[in-house]
């Protein structure tokens, strides 16, 4: 194993940075390449076939070019649709990101759980299966919140977050879930970037859960015992629009490239 072989983190945009933050906590010395398919953003509004083709194709190209030791699909939409297919075609370990329904079911006291995700994620059989396995005795209310993806991208760029986008997403879920809602699964890696805004909008009675810390632990487990050496600064690659370097510097990403 080449000690400088990176861990590849992949998302449609900047959402995967919430997973990178957790990964830095458990593996501060690991070399990382962050890749975002910003030419394909948002995935949540695309068909299953489009998402599967983009994700499998791009991960193939990225793996060929950067020779990662492991790839993490830091995107619920891409994972719930294409994880199996990507695992079939790539020879490296692939870690996916799936909605944190299991911990939410353990946390809720009222039994009413909300799930905020993209339109593509909330309709997946993968989510049906997680619900059947871990929350069959709970009420899981799914709500698509594409406006939060746009808001999170804007926030990362240092732009103003549109309060109407936050309140529309929150009101849409609250209206359908009712007053018993006490736990919300942030089933899109973009959404923890809006934790402050969402906490304010939902109020003190609602707790949030996302999968980032669990994914980071899984990656750390899979590379345990391997030599890890950052022989060059970590960086980010984009298929389309590239955020300003200063927005990515806090995540330990030194520069950006286009692929
Ligand atoms: N960050 C992605 C997710 O976790 C999706 C954002 C998008 O491209 O719609 O679902």
Give the helix proportion (percent range).
40-55%
**Numbering strands along the chain, what is their spatial order in the largest sheet?**
4-3-1-2-9-10
Strand coverage percent? 15-25%
**First and last CA, distance:** 26 Å
| Strands, count | 10
CATH topology of the largest domain: Rossmann fold
Number of domains: 2
The SSE order reads: EHEHEHEHEHHEHHEHEHEHE
Low-confidence parts: none
The main pleated sheet reads as:
6 strands, parallel
Q: Overview of this structure, please?
A:
- The structure is a single chain.
- This protein has 259 residues and is α/β, with parallel strands linked by helices.
- The chain folds into two domains: 7-97 and 213-258, Rossmann fold (3-Layer(aba) Sandwich), CATH 3.40.50; 101-210, Rossmann fold, CATH 3.40.50.
- Helices cover 44% and strands 17% of the residues.
- It is built from eleven helices and ten strands.
- It has helices at residues 17-26, 48-66, 76-89, 101-107, 119-122, 125-134, 146-156, 163-177, 195-202, 212-223, 245-248; strands at 7-11, 32-36, 70-73, 94-95, 112-117, 139-144, 183-186, 207-209, 235-238, 255-258.
- The strands form two sheets. The chain has a six-stranded parallel beta sheet, sandwiched between helices. A four-stranded parallel beta sheet has the order 6-5-7-8, with helices on both faces.
- Helix 2 packs across helix 3, helix 7 runs antiparallel to helix 8 and helix 8 crosses helix 9 (195-202).
- It binds D-glutamic acid (DGL).
């Amino acid at each position: 194993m080449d000690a400088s072989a990176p861990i590849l983190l992949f998302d449609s945009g900047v959402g995967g940075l919430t997973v990178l933050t957790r990964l830095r906590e458990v593996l501060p010395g690991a070399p990382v390449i962050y890749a975002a398919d910003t030419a394909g953003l948002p995935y949540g509004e695309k068909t299953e076939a489009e998402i599967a083709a983009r994700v499998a194709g791009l991960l193939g190209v990225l793996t060929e070019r950067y020779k990662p030791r492991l790839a993490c699909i830091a995107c619920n939409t891409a994972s719930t649709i294409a994880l199996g297919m990507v695992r079939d075609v790539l020879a490296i370990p692939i870690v996916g990101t799936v909605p944190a329904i299991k911990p939410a079911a353990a946390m809720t006291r009222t039994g009413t759980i909300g799930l905020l995700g993209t339109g593509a994620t909330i309709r997946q059989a993968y989510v049906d299966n997680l619900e059947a396995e871990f929350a069959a005795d709970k009420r899981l209310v799914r709500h698509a919140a594409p406006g939060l993806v746009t808001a999170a991208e804007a926030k990362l760029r240092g732009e103003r977050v549109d309060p109407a986008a936050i309140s529309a997403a929150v009101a849409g879920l609250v209206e359908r879930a009712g007053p018993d809602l006490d736990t919300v699964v942030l089933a899109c890696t973009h959404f923890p970037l809006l934790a402050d805004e969402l906490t304010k909008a939902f109020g003190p009675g609602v707790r949030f859960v996302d999968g980032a810390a669990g994914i980071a632990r899984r990656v750390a487990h899979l590379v345990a015992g391997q030599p890890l050496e950052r022989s060059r600064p970590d960086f980010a690659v984009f298929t389309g629009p590239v955020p300003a370097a200063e927005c990515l510097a806090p995540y330990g990403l030194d520069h950006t490239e286009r692929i």
